[in-house]
Write a structure and sequence with these properties.
Radius of gyration of chain B: 37 Å
Helix content of chain B: 55-70%
Number of strands of chain A: 10
Strand content of chain A: 5-15%
Shape of chain B: elongated
Strand order of the largest sheet of chain A: 6-7-8-3-9-10
Structural class of chain A: alpha/beta
Largest interface: A-B, 156 and 151 residues
Radius of gyration of chain A: 35 Å
Number of helices of chain B: 22
Oligomer: heterodimer
Strand order of the largest sheet of chain B: 6-7-8-3-9-10
Largest sheet of chain A: 6 strands, mixed
Number of strands of chain B: 10
Distance between the termini of chain B: 73 Å
Structural class of chain B: alpha/beta
Chain lengths: 602, 599
């Protein structure tokens, strides 16, 4: 399906509005662009006059055999070369400035927009897709705009320049030269479009090959146990062969391009020799003119090829542009018009939450919560228990206002939460995910994320409070230990402790804790348990609970099923009911009990 | 093997393509040198009326054919010769591109094939150590680097070498003095390119690195968007990204400035060389040392020579990259494959009885760290054994030894009385069905995932297996049912659904030895109960080993093995273990305590 969409985007005609949008981003570089345009015209001018030097030398020095003026000639030639050197330097440097500057501006703007988008958007949109928009697509736009100007202006100016010069030299021969131009332009454009399409196809196959390798390696154990090596290899080879065929074709077609163009341009040369040669014999033109014409026919193909490439690439860039600008035209589903003033920033949430008759669905028609009500007293700790997909996470997301309910109200401290700034809620919030997300950097930096102005000492205190200090001290570099991309150099349990320290530092009025299901080694497990107890003190806490020990600590347990609370109360009361909670408890927490018992043995 | 030997190995049978590509370069280059000679002849002899004087004795040959006079009187014919020469030259330059593509693409295909095949056959111990991303990167971009080198850079180098070899004799025969002038700056331009690209390498790397950092910042912030929001750190993240994007921009801009400096000065050198040819040429032409046609031929030749020379400087600095890439690939290919062959062959339809004996088996992944310590265990055919133990006690390692995913050195493991190492490894694995805690599913349909390990499996059988694994109802809820696509381009199953798919995939094979390695951990208790009932019904059909933490699952076993630090500490039936003081008894009693507590 994706494939078809891409093709459609590609075939679309020139989209004027899109390019106008894009030109807006060139505004800060207007002056540079004008300079660049002038430089390109100058450069094309030099390229136009260079063959005239040879002509002059032949007609005014060699033919008459006069040696005078050769010094002036050489000096002028050198001067022109220096001028061209300056032009080339300027054009690359300025185009580079425009390209990189525009890319940066576009990236910043799009990124700001993304930071405003609500969670539902991130649920629908894979991160990888967004990353590609912000990196390769934007790079392509900057490239086309900056270097496109270079090639377009230079190409057009040179074509005009050469045309003017050859018409002045001899209009009959000029017409002859221009006769092959339309053919060359047409073939160039065709080729460039075809080449781009082929290489896009190859790229697609390449990503499939990558996926094939990745699957082959990830699934190695499964493949071995199922003894599927042969079948896997056959399937991979299918893909490999397709990649081979397409890649081969793409290369062969591009290998055909330059030879074709050059042969066509040699037809121009042949014509000049035939007709121009006869003119020279008839003394209608001089040697110099003839030689200059031969040079011009050889020179003409380059600007044509460049301009053709730009047109082909513009179509390609248009698709990239559409994707990038589609991000800019998004409207966030939860808008936060209210500014966070200093006064409200200081005001601490009491943490009383009242949910009244809310209904919520991610997709229309599939309600996750229906007419749901719940009151949470300030400072209460609450555990949500139940099998996956029963709305625990949804409930938490709604309380945090990552989503808003379709009907009903949620009040925080007795105020409907749409009436307070979104940022204020989030400033009061502490949120720990199942697999906590850490950022590349040191442990110190990661904990500081909880409060950016915290001192090193405060950070160490926070780590101590959640019993993370010991394991951190055992790492090389201690608090300066680099946690790696997404914190991958730490275990899940260790990441969890860091995330706890982060929350302690932030000291939120409302704590959301999504406990890890993945097994943690028993030692860390004990630490995490103790730390959790610490976290619950002094704030309203809502925990999606997977651990027995946590459940025993909280004030109230909600057993959820299909978006409803089917049992609630404290642990003892629920066990006494001998209902669903009792069954779940017996089954679900056996592993934890077993692990604890084995730990005792050891 | 060295990188070069691998290159030769995968070029077997296609080397002629490379050789002919090089040959075509030579032919094409030669013909492209003829055009300026024809122009010279036209200018000097046809238009200028000077005596015919072509190098390499061509004019004798032409005179013999009577062509000279033809050319003299018919400029149309001369023009046609120019077109014809161009056609031949460019035809060969196209053929060169075609041939080298045939060579390099076939080479890359073979290389990818060999890599995929080899990686699958490497022992699992290798797979458990490597970083997938790194290996995938090598198999794709390193292969591409080598392909590009063989397909375009190496032939370009060939051209850089052929050009002077073919051109210098022609130039010398026209005018030795002009030859000297034309070549004077060429070594300088070559060295300038070579040194520049060596030096600027670091700047390229710095720009790449800055892009990597920017992408990481972006990726982390978008993946961690919940954390960003929960701490209201949007502004902080915007600043972080802006900084990274700014560094990237700065590095790129600096690189471009350096490139601007290089291209402009290098262009200048080339132009000065061309100007020198023209100015000295004018002088020599006026003094009569050379003809106008010769001057024009030289100014064409010098242009032809300069660009490839400049490219060569760049290619030579790039060559190192291709060698490094090939070396990294050779590293993978040099790793020894898992030995498959056994002492005998099992017939395809042979079914082992399923008796398993562990005799004094010890195992360690790293020498210091003993995982299994003198395991002695005898499992009867058709018996169900439960393995119990804390995380890290060696349960998974023990079962991984049975299909020989790891090779043990100390002790013996026998199936039906035959030492495991005597079996053909693949034939042995066909007898064993193992379901992992985090099973891997392929990016294809559910039906294919269940059925594709067996031979000719019907839809009916797939559904039956799915029912046994309590998966059928979940699948029926999908719009496309069993044809639902999984993975990247399809849907993502929940942990429990994945485990059940893996169970169905194994049950359908009906293996004589069945191993469930914590394979029900993500399945909810009701579904687990269902699967347990189904497994009970199969009891006795296969020797079954279950690893689980849930006592309800464990209790259905004939015997229970409790592992601790790689040793068997308890062994017996459920009833026996209940009577023994130990962890099993305690865990079991907790349940009763709970009931008492609740009551």
């Amino acid at each position: 399906m994706n494939r078809r969409i891409e093709e459609q985007e590609y075939r679309k005609n020139f989209d004027l509005k899109l390019w106008q949008n894009l030109l807006r981003f060139t505004k800060p570089h207007r002056r540079l662009m004008i300079i660049l345009g002038l430089v390109m015209i100058g450069s094309a001018g030099v390229d136009t006059v260079l063959p005239l030097f040879t002509k002059h030398a032949i007609d005014h020095m060699i033919t008459p055999g006069i040696f005078e003026g050769v010094k002036e000639f050489a000096a002028l030639y050198l001067g022109i070369i220096l001028l061209q050197t300056a032009f080339v330097y300027l054009l690359i440097d300025i185009a580079g400035r425009i390209e990189t500057g525009m890319n940066k501006d576009l990236r910043s703007t799009v990124y700001r927009k993304l930071q405003k988008m609500s969670f539902s958007y991130y649920d629908r949109t894979p991160t990888g897709w967004l990353v590609a928009r912000l990196t390769s697509d934007i790079s392509r736009l900057g490239d086309v705009v900056a270097w496109g100007i270079v090639d377009l202006i230079w190409g057009l100016a040179l074509m005009i320049g050469i045309s003017v010069v050859i018409f002045i030299l001899n209009w009959k021969l000029a017409l002859l030269v221009l006769a092959v131009i339309p053919l060359m332009a047409w073939i160039s454009t065709k080729f460039h479009i075809r080449m781009l399409r082929n290489f896009r196809l190859v790229r697609r196959f390449n990503s499939q090959i990558t996926h094939g390798f990745s699957e082959g390696i990830h699934g190695a154990k499964t493949t071995k146990t199922l003894v599927r090596e042969k079948a896997n290899l056959d399937e991979f080879e299918d893909l490999n062969r397709q990649m081979y065929r397409h890649s081969l074709r793409a290369i062969i077609i591009s290998a055909l391009f330059m030879p074709t163009i050059l042969v066509i341009s040699s037809i121009g040369t042949g014509l000049i020799i035939w007709i121009g040669g006869n003119m020279q014999i008839a003394k209608v033109i001089g040697y110099g003119t003839l030689v200059a014409f031969i040079a011009y026919t050889l020179q003409f193909f380059e600007p044509i090829s460049h301009v053709a490439r730009i047109f082909a690439e513009m179509q390609n860039a248009q698709a990239a542009g559409e994707r990038v600008f589609s991000l800019l035209s998004l409207t966030p589903e939860i808008s936060d018009e209210m500014d966070l003033c200093q006064e409200s920033k200081q005001r601490r949430m009491r943490g009383e939450i009242s949910i009244e008759n809310i209904t919520f669905a991610y997709k229309e028609g599939k309600e996750v919560l229906t007419d749901f009500s719940l009151f949470i007293a300030a400072g209460e700790s609450l555990a949500l228990v139940g099998v996956t997909g029963t709305g625990k996470t949804t409930l938490v997301n709604l309380i945090c206002r990552f989503y808003e309910p379709q009907t009903g109200t949620i009040k925080i401290d007795d105020i409907p939460y749409q009436d307070v700034p979104l940022r204020w809620i989030h400033c009061q919030l502490g949120y720990v995910q199942q697999v906590p997300h850490l950022f590349q950097g040191s442990i110190m930096e990661n904990i500081r994320y909880g409060r950016l102005d915290a001192t090193d000492d405060e950070i160490i205190q926070a780590a101590k409070a959640v019993y993370a200090d010991d394991f951190i001290r055992n790492l090389p570099g201690e608090y300066d230990y680099q946690v790696g991309e997404s914190g991958n150099l730490l275990s899940t349990g260790q990441k969890q402790l860091i995330a706890f320290a982060r929350v302690v530092l932030a000291d939120p009025a409302l704590l959301i804790l999504d406990e890890a299901t993945a097994s943690i080694d028993t030692e860390t497990e004990q630490l995490v348990q103790n730390a959790t107890a610490k976290l619950l003190q002094g704030r309203t806490s809502i925990i999606i609970a997977h651990r027995l020990s946590t459940i025993r600590q909280v004030d109230r347990i909600l057993l959820m099923h299909n978006g409803h609370v089917i049992e609630q109360g404290d642990h003892r009361a629920l066990m006494r009911m001998r209902g669903k909670y009792y069954n779940l408890y017996i089954n679900q927490f056996m592993q934890e009990i077993a692990d604890q018992e084995f730990a005792k043995e050891a | 093997m060295t990188a070069q030997k691998y290159v030769l190995k995968y070029s077997i049978g296609i080397k002629y393509r490379f050789v002919s590509a090089i040959l075509f370069i030579a032919i094409g280059t030669f013909f492209s040198f003829l055009t300026p000679l024809v122009l010279r002849f036209i200018i000097d002899s046809v238009l200028g009326g000077k005596p015919v004087d072509l190098p390499l004795g061509i004019h004798h040959w032409l005179a013999g054919q009577g062509t000279v006079t033809g050319l003299l009187h018919n400029l149309m014919f001369a023009g046609a010769v120019i077109v014809l020469l161009n056609l031949i030259a460019h035809l060969f330059s196209f053929l060169r591109g075609k041939m080298s593509a045939h060579f390099s693409e076939e080479f890359a295909r073979r290389l990818r094939h060999a890599l995929y095949d080899h990686i699958q056959k490497l022992p699992f111990s290798w797979h458990s150590k490597i970083q997938t991303g790194d290996i995938v990167q090598r198999c794709t971009s390193d292969v591409d680097t080598v392909r590009r080198f063989l397909g375009s850079q190496l032939p370009e180098l060939g051209r850089g070498i052929f050009m002077p070899i073919l051109l210098i004799p022609i130039m010398l025969s026209l005018s030795p003095r002009m030859t000297l002038i034309s070549l004077s700056a060429v070594p300088l331009i070559f060295l300038y390119a070579y040194i520049f690209f060596r030096k600027v390498k670091k700047k390229f790397l710095a720009a790449d690195e800055a892009e990597g950092v920017m992408t990481t910042v972006l990726d982390e912030a978008l993946n961690g968007i919940r954390v960003v929001r929960a701490f209201a750190r949007q502004d902080h993240e915007i600043v972080r990204f802006d900084q990274a994007a700014d560094v990237y921009r700065e590095k790129c801009r600096k690189l471009i400035t350096v490139l601007a400096y290089y291209w402009s000065t290098s262009d200048m050198l080339c132009q000065v060389q061309i100007a020198a040819v023209l100015v000295f040429g004018i002088h020599l032409t006026i003094t009569g040392a050379i003809t106008l046609g010769t001057l024009l031929a030289f100014s064409t030749y010098v242009g032809m020579l300069l660009w490839p020379v400049r490219e060569m400087g760049r290619i030579l600095t790039d060559m190192g990259r291709a060698f490094v890439a090939m070396k990294r690939l050779a590293e993978i290919l040099d790793t020894e494959q898992e030995k498959v062959e056994g002492y005998f062959d099992l017939p395809d339809d042979y079914r082992i009885r399923g008796k398993i004996d562990f005799i004094d088996v010890s195992f360690a992944y790293e020498p210091e760290h003993q995982v299994l310590d003198k395991i002695n265990l005898s499992i009867k055919p058709g018996e169900t054994i439960a393995l119990l133990g804390a995380t890290g006690s060696g349960k998974s390692t023990l079962v991984n030894l049975i299909p020989r995913l790891f090779d043990y050195e100390i002790g013996k493991i026998r199936i039906d009385g035959v030492e495991l190492k005597r079996f053909n490894r693949r034939q042995l694995r066909r007898q064993i069905g193992i379901v992992l805690q985090e099973p891997f599913l392929y990016s294809r349909t559910i039906a294919e995932n269940i059925g594709f390990a067996g031979r000719e499996i019907s839809e009916h059988k797939i559904e039956q297996a799915a029912r046994e694994a309590a998966l059928h109802d979940s699948v029926s809820e999908f719009e496309l049912g069993y044809e639902t696509l999984l993975g990247e381009r399809g849907i993502t199953l929940s942990g429990g659904q994945r485990q059940r798919t893996a169970i169905a995939r194994t049950l359908i094979l009906d293996p004589p030895i069945l191993i469930l390695d914590d394979a029900l951990s993500a399945v909810d208790s009701e579904t687990e109960h269902q699967i347990r009932e189904n497994l009970l019904r199969r009891k006795g059909r296969a020797t079954t080993i279950i690893i689980s933490h849930r006592l309800t699952s464990v209790a259905i076993a004939d015997r229970i093995v409790v592992l601790e630090h790689g040793r068997i500490v308890q062994l017996g039936t459920h009833e026996e273990l209940l009577r023994q003081p130990g962890p099993y008894q305690r865990i079991w009693h907790i349940q009763h305590e709970l009931e008492a507590e609740a009551g």
